[in-house]
Design goal:
single chain, six-stranded mixed β-sheet, 7 helices
Length: about 300
């Protein structure tokens, strides 16, 4: 008899990594378990908890770094977002002009909250940005610094629940001149989830590559010596000094008018359309900056449809 007759069948194939990896049995299941908050096959997130959840707005207007100007108009953005999320039933907290140390401490404290009776988490950051980083008052932090503490293995009461991040910040210095289109025709079994599942990150413009900063405060000016070379393909995010940023203006309109009507990805698609079609920079004294366009960018790891529900 051929020895292969006793070999396990590979009819259905075997899952392998598309990268070099190292087997480490000691780490197997090290993340443990978390409470199942929604049936494995449910198409929608469970949005009928006692509370809609909490929303945190980190609003940065003034900076101590000389190359960063005041963000005139951001208070309008902050006010609009607060009203929108309160309307959706969230408890809203605003933090103003935090330095990097306090910002990271606040993020850690937020990750330590108990979300058992909440539908989801919302975090908004309004600030200056460059490729892969956002600025606190005195230094930069990476996007992963923002959402990393909320993965399912670190924040288990949010496991299986949506975590929404809205980032209003530039991602570089490239401009988008746009293009004119001319019409041609008028009891549920348990199940495992990835630790990075159930995130949604909405950027006001197209983001750049990720990289990590070390010794942020002391290295920040050295960092800027080589920064321009890597941000030339990343885009501006526009803000009106009187009305606020294009992205937040569009987001506020959709949340106020349709927040309970459509799921979040549909809402953000409408936000993209508003920003792309309804806005254009008005800087008549500067030929380069005048008549420019913008498109937001949505990164989603959501595993179900998310539709906000009114609380009784």
């Amino acid at each position: 008899m051929d020895s292969s007759d006793n070999a396990p069948s590979l009819t259905n194939g075997e899952d392998v990594q598309d990268a070099f990896g190292f087997s480490n049995p000691k780490n197997k299941n090290k993340n443990g378990d978390a409470a199942m908050v929604v049936h494995k096959d449910s198409l929608f997130y469970k949005m009928d908890h006692t509370s809609a959840g909490v929303a945190f707005i980190f609003n940065h207007e003034k900076f101590i770094m000389p190359h960063l100007r005041d963000r005139t108009g951001t208070q309008e953005d902050c006010s609009n977002l607060r009203k929108c999320f309160e309307l959706l039933g969230f408890s809203v907290t605003v933090y103003q002009d935090l330095e990097i140390k306090e910002f990271m401490q606040r993020i850690e404290k937020i990750a330590e909250l108990d979300y058992s009776d909440m539908d989801c988490l919302v975090i908004c950051v309004l600030s200056h940005g460059e490729s892969g980083v956002i600025y606190a008052k005195d230094a930069a932090f990476t996007h992963e610094d923002l959402w990393g503490p909320f993965t399912a293995d670190k924040c288990k009461s949010l496991a299986g629940k949506p975590k929404l991040f809205f980032i209003q910040a530039c991602q570089g210095t490239r401009l988008d001149p746009g293009l004119t289109l001319k019409a041609e025709v008028d009891s549920s079994p348990s199940y495992k989830i990835p630790i990075h599942a159930d995130f949604l990150i909405a950027y006001s413009t197209i983001p750049g590559p990720k990289f990590r900063l070390s010794e942020r405060s002391s290295k920040i000016f050295q960092f800027f010596k080589w920064l321009p070379g890597i941000i030339k393909n990343r885009f501006y995010s526009w803000r009106n000094t009187g009305k606020g940023s294009w992205f937040v203006q569009a987001l506020a309109i959709e949340l106020k008018e349709n927040g309970f009507r459509y799921d979040i990805l549909t809402l953000l698609t409408f936000v993209n359309r508003r920003v792309a079609v309804d806005f254009e920079s008005y800087v008549p004294g500067d030929r380069v900056m005048h008549a420019q366009k913008q498109i937001p960018c949505i990164t989603t790891m959501l595993t179900r449809l998310l539709k906000f529900q009114q609380k009784k």
